[in-house]
Amino acid sequence: MKTQLLLTFTGYDYIDDVIENIKSVYELSDDRIFVLVNKTNPKEAYLTYNVVKKNYKDTPSRTILVHRKKETNTLYTINAVNQAILDEVGVYDHSYDLNWNQYKNSLLLTDDYGLRRISTKLDTIKEI
Known about the structure:
Elements: E1 3-11, H1 15-25, E2 32-38, E3 44-52, E4 63-69, E5 74-76, H2 78-89, E6 106-111, E7 114-127
Parallel strand pairs: 5-6
Antiparallel strand pairs: 1-3, 1-4, 2-3, 2-7, 4-5, 6-7
């Protein structure tokens, strides 16, 4: 069974409502949703969960596909990894091995200004 790791951005006060929406749209591959919070702004929450890979028509807003580096608890997009490599070596070198320890317990994204690193901590695991 192919799965995808998704991340949904939400405010901390809306976690339960967003989880209900996620459950109504996706087939989860396990019964857990991980709730992470921004260390510097705990009102920002990030819900991560694995879904069975399908073509979903009603993707919840503010949801993206992410990847996870298990050893360092780093969540990232492919664009963010490419930007981190560019920042470190000056060129897109896909053979370059990032020092993942410097991104430990983080969410790596890109925005109009380049690489964005958000320090996260696990708040809870919601059993569904």
